[in-house]
Structures are given as C-alpha cells and as structure tokens.
Amino acid sequence: MTPCAVRIECQRIYILRKNALLVAVSTSLDSQIRIWDLEQLKQNKIIDAGAVQAWTAKFSPDSKHIATGTSSGNVNQYSVETGEKVQTFEGRGKFSMCVAYSPNGEYVACGTEASSDSATVLLFDVATGKLRSTFKGHAMTVRSIAFSDDSTKLVTGSDDKRIMIHDAVHGDTIRTLSGHSAWVLSVAVSSDGVHVASGSSDSKVKLWDLVADQCIDTMDGHSDQ
Amino acid sequence: MYHPQSKYLEIPIRNTDNVLEIARSNLPSPSELFDIFKTERAPLKYYVLFSLEFARQKNTDAAIKVLVDGLSADYLRNVEPHLPLHNLLACLYIRKAYQSGITPQERNAFWSEATRHLGLAERINPKEDTTWITKDEAYRHFKQVLIENNRSIPAILGVARILFIRENYGQALNYYRSVLKLQPDFTPNPRIGMGLCFYKLGMDDTAQQAFERCVEMNADDATAHVLLAILCFNKCKRSDLSEEEIKQIYRTGFMHLKNAYTADKKSPVVGLYMAKHFVVTQDTEKAMAFATKASNSHGLKNVQAEGFYTMGRIHHQQERYVEALACYGKAVSFNPENLLAQFGLGQTLLFKQDVAGAISAFERILSKQPKCVEAIAILGSIYSRSAASKSKALEFFDKATNIIHERNTLSVQDPLMFTEMAQLLEQTDTAKTSKAYMFALGICGQKIERGEPVEYMPELLNNVAAITHMDGRLEAAEGSYNKALEMCAGKDGDVDMATEATITTIRYNLARLYEDRNEIKRAEEIYKDIANKYHGYADAHLRLGVIEQSRGNFEQAAELYKDVFGMIDNKNVDAWTLMGMLQQKQNQIRNSRKTLERIVKEINRHDVYALLALGNNHLGIAREEKDNMAMKQELYKKAFEFFDKVLKIDAYNAYAANGIAISLAVHGHHTEAREMFLQLREAASAIPTIWLNLALVSADMGQYRNAVLLYASVSKKFFNNEDENVILSMAKAQYCLAKQEKSPEKMLQALTMAQRAYRLNPSDKTALYDIALIQQSYAQLVSDRAADQRTVEDINHAMAGLGAAKGILKSLIAVPAKEHVYYEREIAAQREKHGDSLLTILQRKLKDQEIFEADRQKVVDETRKKREAEKAKKDEEKRIHLERQDEEERDILERRRALDQGAKETQRELDEMNRERAERKRMTVSDDDASDGDMDATGEREVKKQKKERKQKEPREPKEPKEPKEPRKGKLRKKSEREGRARSRSTDRDRDEDDGADDSTSKVSSKKYKSKENIDSDEDDLSD
What we know:
The structure holds 2 protein chains of 2 kinds. Chain A is mainly beta.
C-alpha cells in the first residue's frame, strides 16, 4: 500500500505515542483496520473488520486495544497484539459515528446517528462490556465525542449545532452549550477540565468556559472544514 | 354698471327685471338715495357706484354719506364684505383732508377717519388689491401731510399703520414712538401699535409691557386686554416652562380675556378667544356659543375662519364628523391660509373616506408649510394604505424622518407614524424597519417619562423584538420580548383581554426564539402552556407538531396537526400544509398530494405555497416514474400547470419560475432551461434550488466541469458543505467529467467527493454504491490507458480500489430485501462480477506493465549509463585540467618566491657592480657609455618583430614556445610579456608553462631578466 492510497482511502487516523514509538491506526472503506508504525512509516498490522464495519477506530489508553464504531451501531474492541476481536459493546442499531475511551480506561463511549426513538450517546463499561448510561438530548447525529482528563465528563458535539456535557459517573447530562450555527464536527476538553474547544462545519472554532457556562471566544481563521 | 359715458345710472328694482334710471345730472340727495336703496334692497356695489358718481361731481360729503349709509344698512349686513367701501371712504377722507380752508383740527380729524377705515379694510382682508392701492395712495398722502406738518398725529399713525402692514415693523415702531412723544395720551393708544410691533419683532416681553401700560391708562381698553390674553396664551405653548408656570400664565391670560370681554362684549376677537378658552376647559356649550358668534363677525374673514375652525374642532372632538367637516370647510373658504383648519378638514375628509379630498387638503398645507411633519406623516399614512403608492408613502415617511432628524426632537411626535412606517418597511427593508420602530419606542419612552400613558408599548416592543429576531440577533430579541412581557405584567389590576392576547403573542414569539436557539424544551413548555390555556391558539399546536416532527415522532406530529384542522380550524392552511409536508417526508407521496390538493380546492385556490408544493410533488412522482413514459409526461405536464398557476398569481415567484425551468429541462430544452435558471439566479440568488438546478442542467448538457464548480459553490455557500446529496451530485458530475476526459486523476477526485458525502452520512447506501462504482471506473480507466501513461503503482492502486469496491458491493447486495434502497441489487451483483473480471484483466496488465516498465527501465538505465559514462569522462577531463591549472599556479607562486629571492640577490649584485663600475668609471668613463646605447637599440627592434608573431599565434597555438633566450635583452623581453598578459589573461597559463619549461634550461641567465622585470614592474606601478 502506498502513501497515496492512505490519503484517499483512510477515513480516520488516530495517532498514539506507544512505548516511545509512534503508532497510528486507520480505518478505511475496504473494512481494514491498519496499524502503522509512524517512525518507520510502514504498516504493522491489518485487521479485517468485515464489510463496512469499521468507521472509526481509537486506541485504548494502555494501547492494547482498538475500539471501532460500526454501521450496525455496535462498538467492537480488537486486540492490537493478535488482531482478534475481543469484545463487542452492543449498540442500538444506529450507526456509531465516533468512539472514545475514557483516559482511565474504564469506559468506552460512542455517538450515533440521529434517531427518533433512542439516545444518541452511549456509555459502556469496558470491564463488563455492558451499557452503562445513555444520554438523550441531541436531536441530530453526534459526530464528535471526548472525555475530560479525569474521565468524569463526557463532551459530545452534534449536527444539531449543540455541545452537551454529560456526567460519565452518574449518567446524567449536565449542560448544553448552544452557539454554533452549523454542525459541530469536533470537540476537545482542556487538561484542567475547564475549557472545551469545538469546531463546526462553517469553519469556526469556539472556546467554551464550563464554569461560566458560556462561549468565551470564537475563532474564524479556517477556510474549510 | 358704471359707465362714465352713459347719462343714466341704474338701480335694479326688486323682484323684477326693471331698473330705475337716475340721470347723472340730477342725482337725488344721499338720504333720498338711501331710501331708494333700502326699498329696492340694492346690492352694495350700487352704493359704491353712486358714491363714485358724487365724488366725480366733487361732492365728497355726499359720496361719504352714501358709503356710510351703505355700511350701516341692516339688510346688507350679512351679504358682502365692506372692504371696498372702507377703502373708498379712506380715499374720500384723504381727499377731504386736502380741502383748503379747513382748520388743522378738522384736517387731523379727516386723517383719523381715513386711517380708521384703512384699518378696517385691512382687518377684512389685508391682501386685497384695492386695499394695497388705497394704502399706497394713503401712504403718499400721509407723507405729504407730514412734510407740511410733521406733528400731524393722524398722519403719523397712518404711516405707522401702513408700514406695519408692509411688515416694516422697525420703522412703524419709530412712528408710533413719535406719536407717544407728541401726545402720550392720544386715543387710540399708540402703545398698542408699539406693542404689536414689539410682538412682531419677537420682543414678547416688551410687547406685554406696552399692553400692560395701556391697561393701566385705561382699564377698559378691550384691545389691550385681549392682546395681553393672546400673549399669555401663546406663552403657554412654550415647552421650557413647568406645568405650574403654564397654569399660572394661562390664568393671567384668561383674566385679561375676561376683562376684555367685560370692556367690549361684542368684540369678535375677544369672543373667539373666549371660545378657545372654553374648548380648553371642555365647556362645549359656551365654547360653541362664542365660536358661533365669532364666525358671524362679518367683515373679519380671519376671525370668521377661526370661529368656524373652533366650531369644527368642537364637533370633531365630539366625533360629529359631518358637522366638523362642514365647519372646517367654511373656515377654509373664509381663509384658505388657516392651516389648522385645513388640517382638520383633511382629517375629517379622511374619516369620510374622501381620500382624494384629504390628500389635496394636506398637500395644500405642505405647499404653505413644506416641513409640516404632521401633514407629511398623514400623507405617508394615506399612501401606505394602498399597495400601489407604497413607494410614495415611504418617500413621505423618509421626509418626515429627515425633518425630525433636522429638528432633533421626538417630543411632539406620534409614535404611530413610525409604527406605520415600520410596518410598511417590514417586507422590504429590515434595517430601516427596526430604525423606525426604535424611533417609535423612543417617543413612547419620552411619553412615559412625562407620565403620559402609552397603550401599545408592549406591542411595539414585541414588533421590534420580532424584527431583531428575524434578523438573527437572538439575544437582543430575547431582551426585548422579556421587556415587553414585563410591561404587560406591570399593568396594574385586572389584565384585560387585549393585554392577555398581547402576552400570549409575545410568549409565543419567545418560544419561537428558544426554538431557533435550539432550546427546544423551553420552547415546548411555552407552547404547551399556551395550547392548554388557549386551545384555539393554533400556532402553538402547530409548533409542537413541528418539534415532534423534527424529533422524528411523525405520528405525534401528525396528531397535533390533525388537532388543529380537526378541532380548531378546518381551514387552517398552515396545518394542512404541514400535514402535507409531513406526509411527503414519510414518503406518502399520494397522501401528501391529496392533502395539498385539499388546500387548493377547499380553502384557498390561490395558496401559493400549496400550489408550489403540489408542483414539486408532481415533479417528484414524475421523476420516480420509470416505466410508464406517457404517465411520466402527464405528471410533468401537471407539475408545469401548477407552477404556471403560481406565476399567474405572483409573477415574480422565483420558485414557480424554477419549476417551469425544470419542466423545460426535462423536456429536453436544456439551453432554454439553463438560460432561465441563469436569470433566476440573478434575480433570486438566495434560493439554493436554483443553483442546484443550474448545476444539474449544466451536467445534463454535458458541461460537467461547470456543473462541478456550481455544486462546489452551492455546497459551500448554502449548506456549509453539510448536505450529502449536493456533494454526491458533485461527485457524479465529476465522475462524468472523468469519464468524458478519460482521466483517472479526475476519477480519483470524484472518489474523494463521494467519500466526503459518505462521511456526512455513513448510513447512506447510495453513496457507498457510488464509491464502488467510481472505484471500478477508475480501474477501468487505468486499464484502458496506454502502458506509457500509467504506472505499476496506478494499477496496484486500482486493484486495491477494486478490492474495496467488492467489499462494498457485497455488503450492499447483502442488505435485507425489505429495506428500500436506491440501487438495484441485481445490478450491484453484476457490478461485483464486473469488478472481478476487471481485476483479472488488471492482474494481467500488471504483469505486462511490470515487463513494460522493466524494459523501459532498462532503456532508461542504459541511457543513463551512457550518459553517466560520458559525464564521467568529461569530469575526468575537467579534473585533469584543473589539476594542471593548480600545478601551474603552484609553479607561478614558487617562481615568484624564487624571483623575490633573486631580486634581492640581483640588487646586491647590482650594488656591487655599481660600486665596481663607479670605481672603474673613475678610470675609463667614455668607452662604457657608448657601447650600452647601441645594444639597447638593436634589442628593441627584435622584440617588435616577436610581438607581431605572437599576436597572431598565441590564441591558436598557445603551447608554442615563444621565449627566445636572450639573457642580455632581458629588459626588453619583459615588456613584450607584459603586453601579452594584458591582451589575454587566458593565455597566461600556457605561457607560464613555457616559463616553467624554460626554467631548467636557462636557470642562470633567467635570473638576470627576471630581476629586471621585477624592478620594471615596480616602476610601472609608480607611473600608473
């Protein structure tokens, strides 16, 4: 596989510093999960996930596993070592668009496509593989998801232009941040857990203060999504 | 009439056609004449006629008598103005005053009479021509008198009066002053005239003092009292006074008025002001009585006009518009310059729906007072009522606004004007609308500050908020809505129906705002509350339905819509429309069509929205129809009809025009359709559909590149690149472009686009199918390319793509049959097989390509080798060359060093030689000198020859040895060498080589010449 092919076919690439080695995992339409060694720029391993069954992939904090979101709505966990599927978190049948591990490794959360009858954010317990909490509230597809560093908060961004902050421990939604005028495509939490940054499809980046519960800055420098 | 030539004067006999002829030569006495006039009720002009005849016959007294009789004739009282009589009398008195043989007192008396009549004439109508003429005449005469006797008070007064009428107040004042000096207690009191002058000159306080002095002198001076009263009343209109002060002044004014009334109960002016006072105190009956009296004061047009105006106002206040209109009409007929009466007339005409009359009344005001904001505003308001004159209305509103800006005050304005203006602007200009609303609000705010009640403040605020809301400034709008709610809540006591309705409206708007801000829950709560409280508030139900629909709860949404047209209002178009759209969304196309048809058939035949939706609905069905072509055409035709209907209702409806253009396009008239879309885009660039259609029709016409560009710009401009279908359409256009141009590179771009679309909605199987298709097409294109235009890498890439496509197609084929998909499963299966065969072909071609590339590589390698060998050779040569050069340089350096050494030695030798020679010289001087000179001459010649040779030879044969070894001629040799070096530096090397070669052969001899050179060059350096 040439680098050119990666550019065209990969949908999501996640990079992780593992044992001082840069490793990346990528998913593509041919249903292959590829693990890359970024220092030697070569492919370490290919995991075949089955047709259209690997939309996004993320490393677990201990780098031993990879979680992928699938079109069936399940989240599959693969072992990096063997490439075997080791666990399946049962979703609700709706395409899971984004996946995140909590930094403490206890939870896996996913955001799904919009649906009228079920929640769009699911939180699983990694140890038991069971659904721990569901968060209703987003009216449209959830495209981005992120944990705070202390693993207590879960931040989700959706096509409904809103960002929601959920309590991962108690399973309730803490607040909703409205202000974007287009889809929210990415969210990230600052290491002190006070700020949230979000990017939207109209090329704007907003910075939110979770204490004051408001947008403190809007940046408008990008020219494309 | 009066014919100076005829012998007789005629008096018409009452009730017959006959006339009484009176001979000019035999006029009856004035008293006899008066009797005749009285019996025959002769019109006033006959008095004038006979008076003139007497005057012609120089019987001034008789002339005067006739006129005075005429003025006192009872039967003439109500008929015609006495103005000409007064003017004539004034003239006659002036004539009398010029009679000779009268005493100064008598003369003065005549002047006074003349002045008095002039004044009366003026009061009737100061602008009448004859008055002016009389006055001019009088002025001339008065001046004449004053030349003769500058103490003639009546003449002075006359002049003053005329000057006053000519608005020359300063000079008039001076004349009045001189009267005051001459006779301070003269009646009429000159102070009145002075006061009037002061007043006209804007010195109100001085005027007041003057009038007060009159009152002091004569407490019964009605004129002074009434003038004082007027002054006070005018003062009350000043805005810088406190309420208490105004009341005080008004009271004083009224006191003066009362005094004036006591002094002169018949004075019409006093009566008029009494009437006005009673209007203020709402004592309608008394006011009406006085006003009626004033309106009957014949001969004083202004006063009559004012009287009628006041009557009109009273009627107006009591809403007796017909009477009011009549009174205003009379007032205006007496004095067209009475603008207030004009205004009242306009208002009442407007009430009577006589719009044209009202407009002309207000226009008349504007012709006199172009900056009368009230009239402008009302005209604007009138024009705003009809759609045709909207622009005119706006013009007027703009004018009014500008004037208000100029004056920089809102205090006297009616917020209604701005409200009307804003409502007018709402459709067209949001910025101006909100500005107008802000004005209205500002005025209301000032009114509230002054403690005046403002009834519609919350509504106004609501409208402002709605404007800001629609403008997208949600925070500001929320603030305004809440403020409006607070105001409603602030109203004490029971909340009346109207207020409650307002509150509901504002809350509904607030909920809409929450909805816009995605705070659906808050919005929902309000809607639910409204729906519970007022079941009939259909909009709240509908919004709840829309919310449910957006959540995907279609059943609940449908229930809510049904509630509205089922239980609240069966003719609620919005509800039916929403229902129709919902059904469409649920793919219940036929039901949707039925619902929409219901709107058009049963509720509103001209409902543009429903008609458009029906048009689109038919278009949609037509597009889906794949088998029955006749049916398809029929559906397109129907769609076309709907759009056509809309265009007949609203000729500028871009959506309908868009539909028509689509029909054109589907019938194959691409060029026309494209032209139409282009025009539409120009006119309604904010409608994305038009752009999309333009792109589509461009693609249909094979202008794929254009289509791709259009899709890209639409996607970015309208959809934030969020719309999957747009991007997928772009990918399709790009796909066609790539196929057309047989370009795998462009196909890869199409792939990127399709993947982008897929990423937006990963559960969309159409995008996946397209991706597989594009992958295969890419492989096909790569396969079709000539071997030298592709690489192994390309083929590998294509094969990998085929693999991915196969995976996708497999998954697509595996989709359960019950799921509706937009691709044919069999075709997908065929595609999969096609991919397999392509793969086989590519595998074979890969081998060929590898061989081809290996061959090519070989050729390339060989060529490269050859090239490299050549290059190596060249390099070697160059290297050798360089080495030699280095060597030479080294040699030169060494030789230089040696030379340096040699030079020193030579110097030493020379020194020694010189010493020796000096010693020898002392012995044999003459011999030595002669031999040296000869030697030099021959040497020079020889060198010249050599130089010539070298010039030709050197470039061509640089290696030729050139140094003749003649140590003796060292000095000369050196010269030639220097020249050679100057000629061409490039030859140095060669020469130096030679030098090097020389070295060994002539080591000893060279020493000398080199040293010589060294010395010489030093000399040269010096000379340079």
